[in-house]
Design brief:
Layout lengths: L1 E6 L2 H10 L7 E6 L2 H5 L3 E3 L7 H10 L2 E6 L2 H6 L1 H7 L4 E2 L7 H4 L1 H10 L7 E4 L2 H11 L3 E5 L8 E4 L2 H13 L10 E5 L4 E10 L3 E3 L4 E2 L2 E3 L3 E4 L4 E4 L6 H21 L5 E10 L5 E7 L7 H7 L4 H9 L14 E9 L22 E5 L2 E4 L2 E4 L3 E9 L2 H12 L7 E2 L6 H9 L2
Parallel strand pairs: 1-2, 1-4, 2-3, 4-5
Antiparallel strand pairs: 6-9, 7-8, 7-9, 10-11, 10-16, 12-15, 13-14, 15-18, 16-17, 18-22, 18-23, 19-22, 20-21
Helix pairs in contact: 1-11, 8-9
């Protein structure tokens, strides 16, 4: 069979690469893909944008595509699953209704509250005066979120009241996030350690992937502005066996069951961004209705199960018969970004060192394009280098060894990805 992966980033590169390993698959088409997917054996790029549902569906029909896997949030929220369903095409993605869990933070918080799923206190505002009054009453630190999609950057963790009010003003003005910020969620600041918990759901059963931890802050030590993610590793030591069970019992299963109770069948990947406090209690920070990026890269590196079979079983409501298998090795991914990201940055710089090889590593493309024989930067997050190893320290060392051989003008990356896990290994070897 043929498979179509929709998207052009690092997550889609990882999904396409893993899908191409399935014995069931002849060709993995990637629309529009990137230079990394174009270079993968068994993969082929297709010049169709992620929002052209008609062209995507027509292509799926013309190439006898048996499964479409959707990567980015935009087409999910716009209803690609519903569009493909209407054409009788198999598309692994949540419906437009279900994707509101990510598409609207107000919807998500109301859902969590209604179904007694642990999360922080919150209020929703469309008026700056009302938001400012609430912020000043609550005090800081406090979290300000744009209601709609903002490419993972519509969140401000404000250390002061004035910073929070400024963030609310910027979002509600529409000057940075447009319609995504016409409504905002003001949320309690949750202290603890973050973890990414991603599952696959068939609408009845949810199977967890290996845990992971993202680094959303741009700079060393988790400082600087929020980004779409500067690196990730898997597994996340903070997710102990007990906490894993707690997450499934208090968050994941109630979410799938709650959606079903609301008349919404959730089929697809579900990403729960969690805060785990010092008592080991997990609360939901946010939901994404897709695989995380950059979490997909290290998690796909560790996944030993057939991704295509997994998606097929989920569409057939057969996950109760599936067990997921992962490598015992650790995987750690370092994002290489354009200088200035997530704010102003320049693209079009030639990337050197892409062909070098380091054992136990894999390079995933995100924001790149080709110009004849050259590969150029074409986005904020450009590459993700993943290292594998018997320990986090070993995986980290391999990833950074390969990073050192790559360069372009104004390349930027964090030099401490995985520091929490490395610290745990040092204390408890």
């Amino acid at each position: 069979m043929n498979v179509l992966v929709v998207g052009a980033g690092g997550r889609e590169h990882a999904l396409a690469w893993k899908a191409s390993q399935s014995t069931r698959v002849e060709t993995v088409f990637v629309a529009p893909g990137n230079p990394g997917t174009a270079a993968e054996s068994g993969c082929q790029n297709v010049d169709i944008t992620v929002d052209d549902f008609t062209a995507l569906a027509n292509f799926a029909v013309s190439k006898d595509v048996g499964l479409t896997i959707v990567g980015p949030e935009g087409p999910l929220v716009a209803g690609i699953r519903d569009f493909f369903d209407a054409r009788g095409l198999r598309c692994f993605a949540p419906s437009q209704q279900a994707a509101q869990l990510e598409g609207s933070k107000a919807f998500s918080k109301e859902f969590l509250s209604r179904h007694d799923i642990p999360t922080g206190r919150y209020e929703t505002f469309s008026s700056l005066a009302d938001a400012e009054g609430y912020i000043r009453a609550e005090g800081a630190p406090i979290v300000i979120k744009a209601d709609g999609l903002a490419a993972g950057k519509g969140v401000v963790v404000a250390a002061t009241v004035d910073e929070a009010v400024d963030a609310a003003r910027t979002m509600l003005s529409g000057e940075r996030f447009g319609d995504a910020g016409k409504e905002i969620v003001v949320e309690e600041f949750l202290a603890g350690e973050e973890a990414s918990f991603i599952v696959v759901s068939d609408g009845e059963v949810a199977l967890p992937f290996a845990s992971s931890q993202d680094h959303k802050a741009r700079d060393v030590g988790d400082t600087g502005p929020n980004t779409g993610g500067m690196g990730a590793y898997s597994p996340a030591p903070v997710v102990s066996d007990d906490i894993h069970r707690q997450i499934m019992e208090t968050i994941i299963d109630p979410t799938i069951q709650g959606m079903d109770a609301d008349g919404i069948r959730y089929q697809g990947f579900l990403y729960a961004g969690l805060m785990i406090d010092n008592e080991g209690v997990a609360k939901v920070i946010e939901f994404n209705c897709r695989f995380g990026d950059p979490e997909a890269q290290p998690v796909m590196m560790r996944l030993e199960s057939d991704l295509v079979e997994l998606c097929q079983r989920a569409l057939d409501t057969e996950l109760s018969t599936v067990e997921l298998s992962f490598s015992e090795e650790m995987a750690l991914g370092v994002v290489l970004a354009s200088g200035g990201y997530p704010d102003d940055y320049k693209t079009g710089h030639e990337i050197r060192g892409l062909v070098q090889q380091v054992d136990g590593t894999k390079l995933f493309h995100a924001g790149t394009r080709t110009d004849k024989a050259r590969v150029l930067t074409a986005g904020g997050r450009v590459l993700c280098v993943v290292g594998m190893g018997g320990s986090v320290r070993e995986a980290q060392a391999r990833a950074y060894r390969r990073v050192e051989g790559i360069e372009w003008k104004d390349m930027y990356y964090r030099r401490d990805i995985g520091y929490r896990a490395v610290r745990r290994e040092t204390v408890h070897p």
